[in-house]
């Protein structure tokens, strides 16, 4: 699952933002860090005045976003004479496997970038440390971020992650294909009725307009979004029980599977086939991650647009995940390093506009409201989804349960089982896994 | 080597002659007994560190609920093993499905990987123009990494966009076969790709074996009036027996360890029907941090393979008798 996201993200190009260092300083001033009171080491990230420290940072940005990240780090280093941050990049999957061992043997980084759905696992396993003091010292609160993202950094009532960005699922439409079918390419469907009407028109022009992939990327995430759109959820509030076989979830799954049955999607769509078909004009609509924006921008011959997901169910909702900064627990804690790390995290969070050019919606509200961000048409188009984004819940060991969820959808989408049967079976297994996790992590 | 040492030692010590002879004899015996172990020592050290210790550690892990990052790693006795055999545990279904997937793949792929490379080797052993070129061609896919062949074939075999289905359509065959998303097609794809990928390796082993069979045997057989089939049956096959045993054993083990192909080409689809044992072990141990459970699965799987390998050796020994 992580691997897949990584490989998709590797497709990201260098983006546009490399030359934007000049505007960066301006954008950074938007943050709320202008109260430069007396600062001592360890005041939660406002300032660092101690001796020079070297910080190691690990991330999984193997695509063009990695370059943008390094540019930002270089800028930070030149502005902070007593902090030197060095960056190491691994593929996400290796990275998550490697980090715990490295940390416990004393070879780990000081700062680690992590997906929101990994935070609870790494917190429960004692790899990362609490950051509540960063939030309070910097007077960061829900208001500075989107509530959905901000709450995602909390596990067991303690904060472990400072959100950098969010990457939701968006609705990509191929304008040329729509035009050919007599649809207005500038008015993508936003409701269920419009969506079905558009698909019917597309079918008349000989195009199967909505390829439903049976895999996590992208069909599984589409289904995830729809479960919440139909008013369901994947788990109960305490994440004790899986609920993705609720009537709402079955209805959502049936709607997607019917896309195949009614011929709006071919059967047996392969991994990436939905997106490749979209790019080559065989598919009109693709619900895909925001990280595809930069890939599509590179292909000049595709006319496309991106919008928030159409509302198929009774409410708006979209799958999303988020990159968070975390501080890694060290065998011998160095107070200077910790406070310098906090300074870095705060600084980068304020300077996340350039990061947006890597194809992510900044988590920080001030950056999102800036004119510069609004100028990033495509990424900005998905910013409204932040309000109703359905992030994965904070529960340790959730990764394998999510795999079960996606596999259940796979069986339904490939017609091996009816939606109800597939989801019932999936929930039965997921509940056992959740029980195992409770035993293991003692929550 | 022992002799040299002895001679040197005898000279240097210059002990009384009579005693010297006796002692020399005794110590030569000791050193003589030690010699093979001294020669084996370098490998033994490597085997102990990288073979034996991990196995023992694995057994120890399998008796615990083990997450190296958690302070609490309780001893659970045989619970990890019981889970694999009790149908109400979280892993039972997945585990046996992965065993089933691995067994299907092994049973389908091993005969092909034993027979086809043998045929190739027989052909490539003849002298014809361009022989070296063809030897290289058949070996070439083996040089590619699993990531390369995995991605390559995933796109070639895609049901809706792939080249394979398009070509089938051109010649009037069904063009919508779900090669990578439904069974039994997924098995045909996985086995086919693996045969294409690794046949060259087995063929090279066979080729070396073929070249070891004395030419005189073939000549003698010819003189006795043996047909081509009889020469193959009574000269080539017996001459290849040790090589066949080697190929069969390594191929069974390699097929049972299949991971990359299904991970990349079918991604386990449909559902988890093509998820293999090694994949599931990796998933449990590294992704889900259940090292104890993963270790138990590895050990049960290793025992299964040991039984198969024993049967295999048994079979060939009987033939020899």
Automatic annotation (TrEMBL), chain A:
Keyword Cell inner membrane: no
Ranges of Basic and acidic residues composition bias in the record: 422-443
Sample GO molecular function, one term: maltose binding
Organism: Micromonospora globbae
UniProt record similarity statement: Belongs to the bacterial solute-binding protein 1 family.
Stored InterPro entries: SBP, TAT_signal
Xref: SUPFAM superfamilies: Periplasmic binding protein-like II
A cellular component term, taken from the record's GO annotations: ATP-binding cassette (ABC) transporter complex, substrate-binding subunit-containing
Keywords associated with the record: Signal, Transport
Keyword Oxidoreductase recorded: no
Disordered: region residues: 417-443
Protein's name in the database: ABC transporter substrate-binding protein
Domain of life assignment: Bacteria
GO biological process: maltodextrin transmembrane transport; maltose transport
Signal peptide (from-to): 1-27
PROSITE patterns: TAT
UniProtKB/TrEMBL annotation, chain B:
GO CC terms of this entry: plasma membrane
GO biological process, one term: transmembrane transport
Keyword Iron in annotation: no
Superkingdom, natural source: Bacteria
Keywords, ordered alphabetically: Cell membrane, Membrane, Transmembrane, Transmembrane helix, Transport
SUPFAM superfamilies in the record: MetI-like
Membrane topology designation: Multi-pass membrane protein
Location of the ABC transmembrane type-1 domain: 99-312
Keyword Transport: yes
TM ranges: 37-63, 103-124, 136-156, 185-208, 243-265, 294-316
Major site of localization recorded for this protein: membrane
Compartment annotation: Cell membrane
Family: Belongs to the binding-protein-dependent transport system permease family.
PANTHER family per the UniProt record, alphabetical: ABC TRANSPORTER PERMEASE PROTEIN, INNER MEMBRANE ABC TRANSPORTER PERMEASE PROTEIN YCJO
Name listed for the protein in its UniProt record: Sugar ABC transporter permease
Organism: Micromonospora globbae
């Amino acid at each position: 699952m992580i691997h897949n996201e990584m490989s998709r993200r590797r497709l990201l190009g260098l983006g546009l933002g490399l030359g934007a260092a000049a505007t960066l300083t301006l954008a950074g001033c938007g943050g709320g860090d202008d109260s430069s009171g007396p600062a001592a080491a360890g005041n939660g990230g406002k300032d660092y005045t101690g001796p020079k420290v070297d910080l190691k940072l690990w991330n999984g940005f193997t695509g063009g976003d990695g370059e943008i990240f390094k540019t930002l780090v270089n800028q930070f280093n030149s502005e902070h004479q007593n902090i030197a941050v060095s960056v190491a990049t691994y593929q996400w999957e290796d990275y998550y496997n490697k980090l715990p061992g490295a940390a416990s043997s004393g070879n780990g980084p000081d700062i680690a970038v992590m997906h929101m759905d990994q935070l609870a696992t790494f917190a429960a396993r004692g790899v990362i440390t609490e950051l509540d003091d960063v939030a309070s010292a910097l007077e960061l609160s829900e208001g500075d971020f989107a509530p959905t993202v901000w709450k995602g950094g909390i596990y067991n009532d303690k904060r472990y992650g400072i959100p950098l960005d969010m990457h939701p699922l968006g609705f990509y439409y191929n304008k040329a294909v729509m035009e050919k079918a007599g649809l207005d390419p500038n008015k993508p469907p936003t409701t269920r009725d419009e969506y079905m009407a558009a698909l019917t028109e597309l079918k008349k022009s000989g195009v199967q307009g909505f390829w439903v992939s049976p895999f996590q990327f992208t069909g599984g995430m589409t289904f995830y979004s729809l479960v919440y759109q139909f008013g369901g959820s994947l788990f109960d509030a305490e994440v004790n029980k899986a609920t993705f076989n609720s009537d709402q979830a079955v209805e959502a799954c049936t709607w997607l599977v019917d896309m195949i049955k009614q011929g709006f999607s071919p059967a047996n769509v392969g991994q990436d086939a939905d997106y490749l078909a979209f790019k080559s004009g065989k598919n009109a609509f693709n619900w895909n991650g925001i990280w595809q924006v930069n890939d599509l921008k590179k292909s000049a011959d595709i006319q496309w647009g991106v919008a928030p997901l159409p509302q198929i169910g009774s409410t708006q909702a979209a799958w999303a995940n988020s990159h968070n900064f975390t501080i890694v627990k060290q065998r011998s804690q160095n107070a200077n390093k910790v406070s310098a790390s906090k300074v870095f995290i705060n600084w980068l969070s304020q300077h996340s506009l350039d990061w947006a050019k890597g194809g992510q919606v900044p988590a920080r509200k001030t950056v999102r409201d800036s004119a510069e961000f609004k100028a990033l048409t495509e990424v900005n188009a998905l910013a409204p989804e932040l309000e109703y984004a359905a992030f994965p819940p904070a529960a340790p060991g959730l990764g394998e349960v999510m795999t079960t969820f996606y596999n259940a959808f796979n069986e339904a989408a490939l017609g091996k089982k009816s939606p109800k049967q597939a989801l019932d079976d999936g929930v039965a297994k997921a509940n056992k896994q959740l029980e195992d996790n409770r035993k293991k992590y003692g929550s | 080597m022992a002799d040299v040492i002895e001679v040197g030692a005898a000279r240097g010590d210059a002990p009384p002659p009579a005693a010297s002879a006796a002692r020399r004899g005794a110590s030569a015996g000791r050193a003589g007994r030690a010699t093979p172990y001294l020669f084996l020592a370098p490998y033994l050290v490597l085997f102990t560190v990288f073979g034996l210790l991990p196995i023992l550690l694995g057994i120890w892990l399998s008796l615990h609920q083990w997450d190296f990052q958690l302070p609490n790693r309780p001893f659970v006795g045989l619970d990890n093993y019981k889970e694999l055999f009790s149908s109400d545990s979280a892993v039972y279904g997945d585990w046996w499905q992965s065993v089933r997937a691995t067994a299907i793949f092994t049973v389908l792929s091993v005969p092909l990987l034993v027979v086809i490379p043998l045929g190739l080797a027989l052909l490539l052993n003849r002298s014809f123009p361009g022989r070296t070129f063809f030897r290289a061609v058949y070996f070439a896919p083996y040089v590619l990494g699993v990531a390369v062949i995995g991605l390559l074939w995933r796109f070639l075999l895609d049901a809706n966009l792939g080249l394979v289905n398009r070509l089938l359509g051109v010649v009037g065959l069904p063009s919508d076969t779900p090669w990578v998303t439904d069974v039994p097609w997924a098995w045909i794809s996985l086995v086919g790709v693996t045969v294409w990928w690794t046949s060259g390796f087995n063929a090279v082993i066979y080729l070396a074996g073929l070249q070891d069979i004395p030419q005189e045997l073939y000549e003698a057989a010819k003189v006795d009036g043996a047909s081509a089939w009889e020469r193959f049956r009574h000269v080539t096959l017996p001459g290849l027996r040790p090589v066949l045993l080697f190929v069969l054993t390594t191929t069974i083990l390699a097929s049972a360890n299949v991971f990359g192909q299904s991970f990349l080409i079918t991604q386990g689809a449909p559902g988890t029907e093509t998820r293999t044992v090694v994949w599931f072990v990796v998933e449990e141990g590294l992704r889900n941090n259940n090292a104890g459970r993963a270790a138990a699965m590895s050990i049960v799987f290793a025992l299964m393979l040991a039984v198969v390998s024993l049967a295999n050796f048994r079979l060939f020994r009987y033939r020899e008798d």
